[in-house]
Prior knowledge:
Radius of gyration of chain B: 14 Å
Number of strands of chain A: 14
CATH class of the largest domain in chain A: Alpha Beta
Oligomer: heterodimer
Number of helices of chain A: 10
Order of helices and strands of chain A: EHEEEEHEHHEHHEHEHEHEEEEH
Largest sheet of chain A: 7 strands, parallel
CATH superfamily of the largest domain in chain A: P-loop containing nucleotide triphosphate hydrolases
Radius of gyration of chain A: 19 Å
Distance between the termini of chain B: 46 Å
Amino acid sequence: MTDKIPVTVLTGYLGAGKTTLLNRILTEPHGKKYAVIVNEFGEIGIDNELVVGADEEVFEMNNGCICCTVRGDLIRILDGLMKRKGKFDAIIVETTGLADPAPVAQTFFMDQDVADAARLDAVVTVADAKWLSDRLKDAPEAKNQIAFADVIVLNKIDLVTPEELDAVEARIRAINPYARLHRTQNCAVPLAEVLDRKAFDLDRIIELEPDFLEEGHHHHHDEEMQSVSVKVDGEVDPEKFMPWISNLTQVQGPNILRCKGIVAFPNEPRRFVFQGVHMILDGDVQGEWKPGEKRDSKVVFIGRDLDEKAIREGFLACAA
Amino acid sequence: MSRLGAFIRGAFGLPRRDREAVGRVKALARAAGSFPPETAFAVNEIACADPSCPGIETVILVMEPGVKTRAFKIPKPLDDVTEQDVRAALGS
């Protein structure tokens, strides 16, 4: 894991401020060297940084299955970058405002060579506080980018009133209650909050979200995209849970953008941790339960038109 | 218990971490056509659980500079793919 190059995916709707954040990352004196993959050569005139143009080629590995789409351009570029290994510390993939983050993320799970050489670090979404609510109404891509995010930079807060800001944040939380959210002007967020988050590392899910097993208090509602979290007070039976999660992600995969969970199995001192994108799941036992810690189990799904009742009943039925 | 991780990996179309097998088929693909040296190849065994997908397939992506990526599919697990399969798939 440690020798893999971390890759940050930078998403956000047009004009939200992605380039501002990118320029900050590239110019602040952090001593790291980045390779940046951009959709087109924009106004990134940074000396001695490697900026690579890409064409955002979304490619189906299989029969039009949404879960088997990857970014062909990423595979090609990473193949070239890996031959120059040692020349940079990390990679940033900047997507256009119209791009779906899923094929980018799936590339890291589906492609053998990419998975061997690089690790997906986090999906960072820059959102425009003034215009996001409108975009969420008319642009499905904007909703995908919020739903997918590990980190949300809610930018341009100087252009809205405090009430408007609270309203737009509530819209975001209705879709994705779990992302780390930062309110910013000119994308002024500490870079440590954006880079090297290890959001897709199973052993960091617990560290990043120490309150994961606590019940949330999110009462917002989005009519189309929502998060469903279900908690079992105690352990679950792996003989029931594994077939259930397999079947659910197979059947609902196209609708499930992200999922993650921490599960307690009987007689297993470690937590079973999983996370996934659409129907691609990664899971393993990680990190021992602390002495005296309550061994509860929780799953979270973010997606479109999820059947909350069926998910809830299905997971509760897995209780040991 | 770690088999559970393997179970999920195997059940959801995740590539098995077998560089040798990938390298072998990649070399066969490169040898099967007259590709420019900058051509990138991606070889993956896909076992998608989606009912609309055909089960285990080896997918070879050929990425020539300036040309749209092409996918060639062989309906076999990666380990079973032969030189003849690759030649037939790539039409060489």
